[in-house]
User: Fold these one by one.
Assistant:
Number 1:
Amino acid sequence: MERSSLEARQANNASPLPSPPTVQAPPSPRPPSETSSRQRGEDYVYFERSTEGFSSDAVARATATKLKMESFYKVSVDAAIERNKRRTELEQKLNAAPMPNEAKEREIRKYRKLESQHLRLRRTKISLNDFRTIKVIGKGAFGEVRLVQKTDTAKVYAMKTLQKAEMLKRDQLAHIRAERDLLAESTSPWVVQLFYSFQDPLYLYLIMEFLPGGDLMTMLMKYDVFSEDVTRFYMAECILAIEAVHDLGYIHRDIKPDNILIDKNGHLKLSDFGLSTGLHKTSDGDFYKRLLDQEKQRDPARNSVQVNPINLTMSREQIATWKANRRKLAYSTVGTPDYIAPEVFMLKGYGKECDWWSLGAIMFECLVGYAPFCSENPSDTYKKIIEWPHYLYFPEEVHISQEAEHLIRSMMTWAKDRMGAAQVKNHPFFFGADWNGLRYISPPFVPALSSITDTSYFPTDELGNVPDQLDGVEKVGSDKDLAFLGFTFKRFTGSGQG
């Protein structure tokens, strides 16, 4: 009773409520159809979605945000699926194994610890500031390769840098994405391992394992020729490396001695997938059209390479010139076409067979001392490869076994007649090869290293004075930068991330 009278007095003494302010009604939305009203309810409001009235800059920003959000959630969902898959595989393994519960609990705790490290690694932002340059060890058409050391762990890596603007200008985006995807997918011991990939407004960065033994080209320039036993070992390892790339669904397309690296134990690994492509792609020879453009720009007064009409080969002086220019050509934007298959130049479509032609050309150089179609300029090499039946010649002064010559000719032939991986491995030249134990065989050459940063097997003196800091290059616009979305990658090894 007292409570009711108190509430009444408070109500009488209270100020009257102000009248609500006048609010203009919003524009009437488009009325839904009678059918949709019945389906969605009478209170459903339909708005016409349109970008009319928005500036082009606002539309571009909205599109960029949408793409970035989609990429972020796709990566997150894929990571969650992979994590659940790993958990399921562990549970199946533990349930199938006869072990006590305590041992199973230890395995589960170990798994949880690794997953925690994995999640921490995914949250970590990797940038150029995390690495310090030790030395520039390579130079390519679109960037450099540097020996770097991670500042927090002191681990040593090879860092490949690529200029974004140059990649877009030369229409090489598909190739660098293929290289990044291939390296991210690969766990093969025959392919150089990628640990991180990231970017900034100017450059793309690939942080890969450092292989201190240099490359096969350096060895060929030093020793001139290999014996058949040494050649057999290196070709066998190259076969497994090429096979690993093909098994991932890619064609390398640029297999040459420069891209065959030697690890600290003397074994080979395949690198530089900048021209690689998926097996579904049948023709992409635009990169090589510049060789024809070179022909148009040449001095007409200059004669082409004079070919010996009897042996159809180059003179010793011309071979010496080719060897002297070999390294310079590797650093040029055109590169060296000496190992490219004819079908790639002819733009009529090609498959993984083109990589076996390249291996045949490398095997020829290992045994003879120079590439089969070497010339003083790329244009003449191009012509010789197109008309290869007239120019593939084995010099009489060089002794080559019948098995070796037959294998080379079986790889360096028209694509329809060319040997594949299984046929090459079963060739008499490789009789007795232990294909499953090659990495356990003592190699013919093991690099003598003084430290983990030893670069003595790299021709760094030929690079000239390259600054320790990356050059300030052209910056790409924010709209074009979207082309590199999803480039970031971090490999989880589960043993003290570097």
Number 2:
Amino acid sequence: MSNVTDDPTGDDLSTAVALPGSTAIQSSPPTDRPVRVYADGIYDLFHFGHARSLEQAKKSFPNTYLLVGCCNDETTHKYKGRTVMTAEERYESLRHCKWVDEVIPDAPWVINQEFLDSNRIDYVAHDSLPYADTSGAGKDVYEFVKKVGRFKETMRTEGISTSDIIMRIVKDYNQYVMRNLDRGYSREDLGVSFVKEKRLRVNMRLKKLQERVKEQQEKVGEKIQTVKMLRNEWVENADRWVAGFLEIFEEGCHKMGTAIRDSIQERLIKQIPRNKLENGQDDDTDDQFYEEYFDHDMGSDEDEDEKYYDEEEEVEAEAEEEEKEKEKTGKTDVKANK
């Protein structure tokens, strides 16, 4: 199936010119029509590496008509090995590549002049790696087109190939088997024995359990980190709270001291004798109020002792006076009786 319909039907092919001093021939591309470039391959598990090589072939000339040949299953299995996709699947994959103008099914393994003439091919595009032909002598499949000067080299894309993709599947074979079993395929469809199926299921359950344990461990680790962050935040907040409390407490103590001092001053003012105020005596300072208050209400212990002893002496003196009075009275009574 062709994606482009403007390919001319002219039979003019590119002319080949022998290079001086060499057996190789360099062909010149036609200028009056699109250059017909042919690329061939197996194209199993069609991937972007295939697409890039076809893109290079398509862009090898300003005006290119790209034909892509794909070998059938019989030829491929004989010379290369078993494929994952069938021939029809590989053909259809190529038809959906935007760089391909026409797909040639049942392409030959070795290109000859008859094949080039029948398909009016000007150049053959492929990477420069040698591919063994059908002779078994290790000759390059593209040796003929290289000699006639109709070979256009393309570059391979590193890191991607059909063999690499197959190796990935083989490496993770058990996982792919379990995935397909879970999707409804039977073990007969997958070619798996009963014992192997049970073993795979047990292993997959153990793996899922390990993944859950690991997930829980990660969650616990996240919780621990969150707790540490919250603890640090709590400590910082606690420091701020304590500092704020101490500041408020200090301010409260200062206000309390001020209130106590004002209360004492009011009491001292009330205890001042009114006659001093009536006589026009000036009000004393705060220090004088404190001194008068403490001198009046809270005398020293020595003053109290002196006051006590003075009262005692006064009592004794009064007692002596009474005795003397009694003696005088007694003497007077005696004289009167006589």
Number 3:
Amino acid sequence: MNFMLIFTLILTLQSINTYSLPFVVFHGISDKCSNEGVSYFTELLSNWSGSPGYCIEIGNGEWDSWFMPFTKQVDIACDKVKEIDELSEGYHIIGLSQGNMVGRGLVELCSDGPPVKNLISLAGPHAGIASVPFCGQSGLLCILADSLLKLAIYSNFVQEHLAPAGYIKIPTDIADYRKGCKFLPVVNNEIHGNSTFKKRFASLENLVLIMFEKDQILVPKQTSWFGYYPDGSWSTVLPAKETKLYTEDWIGLKILDEAGKVKFLNVSGNHLEISTSEMKKNILPYLVDNASTTVTTSRSSDLWPSSVRNFNDKLNGVGEEILELHTHVESVSLRSWTFW
């Protein structure tokens, strides 16, 4: 009887894995796919879901995450996902912090690419940031970034040579932001209102927005949920549903939300600090089919006898751990800078 139960469950899990779509991961600033945190994160989720997982590198990783503009990063990513045969029927995107700008670009800007089913965002600067991720005062990357910061953030030169400049949104400098910022106003449909971009974004099956409660890198942290400062003020942070992006539905966020497809989730850690149990609860369900209604993989595992389940957990590294999915970065405030 026990043998038949286990045999039936094995067949069930094999069936589930057969129909699980692959996923791709885009890492954050000052990181690369080969770093231990990102590679382990990708491997765990692939093992748990039974889905092929790919971390897609843009250029050389760390350097280009700072200095390659997002229009070029998205073009490279678009070409790469088209070349991966396993993605042709559709795939999921997992964005880590700044990597969500590449993910958003793929959803909205990648013509004739494979369809994106779920966008799972960890600490994504979707509504912009009012400070720049920074890495201290030593090292070539930091010296160059610091030099660029002293120039006009919305000038053509800085926009073309400092990647985070593409999503910096100074609340008291909105006119220059809309005029000079080359990436975020485009994907957020703040200027021209491209109906194609909106249609593509609204076609997502699930938009999973994960905010980190102790996040001090994203300013404000609510940008992970599309919340942001009102134009012209630093005094408060508007919830996503009170922003013009939502109420006027610039990109289809309201459409998705009213259809029950937006998941506003939060975890307890610092920026990109997540436990394996939080990964299983907040990410894994969206890497298996019918995620919006059932959590088939995680629920089916509960049917295993405890001795078998514990052994399987050990094999797959499911024991409680805290993953730090970023290199050491600090935040430097822009309020003290003068921009022209």
Number 4:
Amino acid sequence: MTQSVQNTSSGGAIKVESNGVNAVSSAERYGSAAGLFPIWFSWNVSILGLTYGIYVYSLGLSVFQAISAGIIGYLVSSFLVGILAVGGPRTGLPTLTQTRFCFGYHGNKFPTLFAYISNMGWKITIITLASTTGAYLFAKLWPSAFALADGKPTISCIVGWFILSLAITMSVAIYGHQLIMKVEKYIAWLTGFMSLIFIALILPHIHWSELGHASSGSFFTYIGGVVMAMTMVGLGFLNYGGDFARYLPSNTPASKVIFWTTSGISLPVSILLVLGVFLADSNPTLSAAASSAPIEALTDLLPFWFYVPFSIVIIISLLSAAITGVYSSGLALLALGIPASRAVTTAINALIIGFGAFYLMFISDSFLATFQSFLASIAVVIGPMGAIQLVDFKRQRDLGWDTSMANQAGNGGCSGRWTALLSLGLAAVVGAGLITSGDPYIAHLVGFLLTEETRHSVFATANLGVIVSMAIGAGVYYVLTYVMNIKHPGWTQATSQQSVSMKKPLASK
């Protein structure tokens, strides 16, 4: 997909984006780094931010510990996303194509596959929540047609909302970057305004006299809260921060890309986290209900006059997150080398989301257990991948951000860089072996390095293996690259100057 599109950012009809994994040309670059804020804000301002606070608190932390651990986790992980997003304007490439610089053309397919799985897991979760929110809304408005005897929506109602949610998501995502940037700006304003009203209505449900009675958790539990916050927010975005920044001019200051990305992600979820922790600490019944049906448990607290419009806003907010994610997952399939159009990759994504949503809605016993287990399991690959890419940024900068390094061997790139792949493989195996899972199916794949005694320790249940995997990946790669000075054959500082001047074009396949 090497065709170019005209820059219609200043006006004119919105066209289907034809850029794929090729570098965006300078003629197509537009906008400023501040434009990154609404796209990340609209993604993270959803009601899920409250449930994240409830989940962090449920680890066994005090109010202060849960709030501070959550905010630290959000800031650190969002900052990492911001740093990786800088590669977008520098190269014009989506993140999972730029990682070829580090892992090689074919070697990059391993981390890209897991990044795609991570992305699709999020989309399955988000579209499922949007579908059930719409189904519960219909069940309350028209119980005779859409509700069972216990008040829950019928299966046909849930399936109908799922099909509608999926269709809307795919329709917008297939248009690509320009339409997404326009749509997300309006969604950010709408969801932000409605969230302020929601917060005002939720505050009376906090039992202020009951706050602060929970005992403090241990040090490892606290670190576990930080890790959980990182996996719920920032780490899941590491693999596509550059996807939305690559249309910015190449000289866009790195500090501004980092600031607007970090603030757009962390600001809304930090505010909602505080409210979620307060609710969980003062209302244990609500905390328990949110573990199985997060959105329904929280919207049940609202007066009916606001419940209806806010449910619609929740659906819009969730679908906005799904749209950006599906867009990036399509780029991930192209980065894997699948010779398909955007329409075909969209159809593949729809099929996978359908199977995943069926599992989450009709097979999984606990949303929280499955959600947390999925995040931790994928993070032991995605986390080290991002950490290794961050370490490699110095090398990429020294080589002039030459996009020809994303090509196949013989055309400026290489098939695989064993230093990066070894670091990632070692980190992923150790990380997976040191975490546990509350989902019985995922549990069989992890924790193999733990003894029966340590399997139930705070270290294991808090999934601190995620941090260990990131440290191992970054550390091993740093030693191999900068201490042992192992270089890829043919790429030295001397030849990099020549490559910068030649600037071979990036092949699309």
